């Protein structure tokens, strides 16, 4: 069994197909499901009871959690079931699902789904009538944006009113969409038809797979049942071995939402497709757009993938759009995703302090703690530690005076890699403590007798830095080896999972047992060397920087059924590098700069606006008001763009260090603020002028988010320079590069 600590093993691969993750243009077809799912359910139940960290029996409490989770998976916005339905299902199944599963009886799951399917069918018939009505869009009514926390509609009449507003909002959204592929009525009607097609495509294995996924997540958010294709996709993610467009889709509220941009893939190199963009239509080359809202994720993926060198056009709702009617069109040339571009990369950065003194900082971007789990220990196996060590060696040859490890959005991965990587920066000693379900605590040590890098160091994190990232960051913080900068805290995942092949626990000669899938099972909790857990708490930053990502809803605490926080006894470690004495000065210097930085002022404004939208949780159904909101958004962005153009360029010059050029003489100069202009990150194709029109009908400039300075990155570089100065007694000299070594050249 393989120990894993990545949150990619949880929400990103969880739930019904409504929550399923797929790699664009790289979905693994997997083996056709043929397993006896009733027997699979019994095996899963026993594995959960006997193998999960909690050792919780499959009892009435789990049954109640399961019913709640399954209903939320089916109807997350509480629009199809009524409270009467919920009351009936609760009375019938709240305390009986556990018994049925242990008996190998999955009829309750099928019956609940059948009721859901009937409710959707009935609702679609009503919605299609609504979609063809005429609305004046001149009322003061609003529609709720997010109903996840709302009560179920009490009866059919209340549900009718909710849907009337929702359909009116959809029609208004398409009316404002200058890229609409058809009339609003036809588009909304097609979406309703697609809902029924999606339901018809969900066979028994799909239904039961979703039910078992819901069962698994009643134990904790990272325990997960995986179908064979989902398991194959996960293994691709860990090995960094895939082909595709280079993005990850997640189905959310009827949209195919961009969950992740794969570093180095065509979407990443193009720079216009963003995380949280929602795909609304897809076109092949110069062909007609096809609406994909409410289309099953697998079908959307099929339309986006295609032969290398061909072009796909995506119509998306931008992630930063305050009005859901806004659209942008992105043409991307399909290509092979180079795995090396998904691994660790680095930069040598020459930064000029305000007083004119130069300093050279190394910067390492680490997207995940990757490893080839099937060939661990092989000399040629994929390894995060091996790659970072190679980059570190080159950075030190280039004469860096400080180092930044950028772990923003690093969701974790291999436990072994987290331990080994920590060993590059500390002397031999404990890295992490692990407690099993019996309460036994074991300590994992790094194996290096001597650290590879001992100089000043900053670790940059955010709310999506999780698991292995948190082990690494916490260890360096506890040892006093690094200053932690970023969001108020990291994700807060302090659990360890192992992958279990379910077929090994099936009765001999079971039909299709080889296709039974796998259970990713939480078996341990991990703890910092000083005894505290990262579970729920995460790793708190020494210096907090304003960020749109810094939201309490993002993290372990926002997931269902998280395990609790606790502590174990601390380990004795060498804290001779403690940064406590200089931390207050570093915080004060950063705080003063942040207060004077217009970019952080924009972040604060955006946070306030987003929080208000979340609090209001509504969008107007008035056409005039919506147009004004769009105009206000455009004016605000135009004003910011004008102000940014008036600034003095940030005083930094960067040189790329990759696993390709790590041993070659000379380095390539890259722009600091905008990757769009870098030769290293050049787009793979040029789009038609028509594809660059914005939603107001005029010629669009480059995406605002693509040209927005990374204020956190800029300030982190300044903090690193401050750290070098303070650790060197404010006597930092000009850059000294060892004679005969390769220097960074333009």
Brief digest:
With 746 residues, the protein is of the alpha+beta class. It is 35% helix and 16% strand. Among the domains are: 217 residues, no CATH class; 135 residues, Pdz3 Domain.
Question: Topology of this structure?
Answer:
Blueprint: E1 3-4, E2 21-23, H1 37-51, H2 60-74, H3 83-93, H4 97-102, H5 107-131, E3 142-144, H6 156-175, H7 184-201, H8 204-217, E4 224-226, H9 228-239, E5 247-252, E6 255-261, H10 266-270, E7 278-284, E8 290-291, H11 297-304, E9 311-317, E10 328-333, E11 345-352, E12 358-365, H12 384-397, E13 402-406, H13 415-422, E14 430-436, E15 441-445, E16 457-461, H14 468-478, E17 483-486, E18 495-501, E19 518-527, E20 543-544, H15 580-596, H16 598-616, E21 618-620, H17 623-645, E22 652-657, E23 668-670, H18 704-707, H19 711-727
Parallel strand pairs: 12-13, 13-16, 16-17, 17-20
Antiparallel strand pairs: 1-18, 2-5, 3-21, 4-19, 5-6, 6-7, 7-8, 7-9, 9-10, 11-12, 11-22, 14-15, 14-19, 18-19, 22-23
Description:
This protein is of the alpha+beta class and 746 residues long. Among the domains are: 3-21 and 34-231, no CATH class; 241-342 and 676-708, Roll (Pdz3 Domain). The protein is 35% helix and 16% strand. An 8-stranded mixed beta sheet has the order 20-17-16-13-12-11-22-23, sandwiched between helices. Strand 7 (278-284) and strand 8 form a beta hairpin. Helix 12 runs parallel beside helix 13 (415-422), helix 13 runs parallel beside helix 14 and helix 15 (580-596) packs antiparallel against helix 19 (711-727).
